[in-house]
Each structure stands twice: as C-alpha cells, then as structure tokens.
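re: ur question from yesterday

yeah so i grabbed the chain u mentioned. its 94 aa long if i counted rite. heres the sequnce exactly as i have it in my notes:
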Amino acid sequence: MISVLVGSSVAAENLEEVITVYEVLVAATLKEPGCVSYELLQLRDDRCELMLAERWLSQEHLDAHTRTDHFIEAMHKLETLEIAAPALIFNSAV
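ran it thru and got these structure tokens back, copy pasting raw so excuse formatting
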C-alpha cells in the first residue's frame, strides 16, 4: 500500500476555485483502479491550508494516476492558484 500526502497553501481569494478543481479531481480519481482513498482536507484553524491524502494499492497505480487527463488538467489549473509542498510518499510499515 502506498500513501501520499501533499500539503498546499491557497490565497483566500482563490480558495473557492481551488476547492472546485479538487472536487472534480477527487470524484474522477476515486473511480480509478487501485485507488483506495483520495481526500482533500482543510486545516481547522486555517481553511486556506490544505492536505491531499491519498492511498493506492501500488506504485504502478499511483504512476498511472499521474498520467490521467483529469490529474494533468487539475495540476495545470492549480499551479497558479496554490503553493504546493513536495509530495510525501509512504509505504505501509505493517
């Protein structure tokens, strides 16, 4: 099992548009083979701080996800709307 965490910061004036982009991305991604979960989280104390939390059956499934049209389109839209941290990728330990 592969887990991915990607944090990002969004300016308040871009938050609504960013959430809309993620809504489309999450809905499409949850239908992909090998996707166990895909969820966008907001920090309780600062709604402009986001965390994308993903779980995949394998690295191959994750790699395939990054080549989908919906992922590529979302990343293109988000690159000017948010400041994303590098992805943290974890393997299940137990």
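noticed a couple things. Helices lie at 15-29, 59-65, 69-78. also The chain has a mean pLDDT of 97.
anyway ttyl
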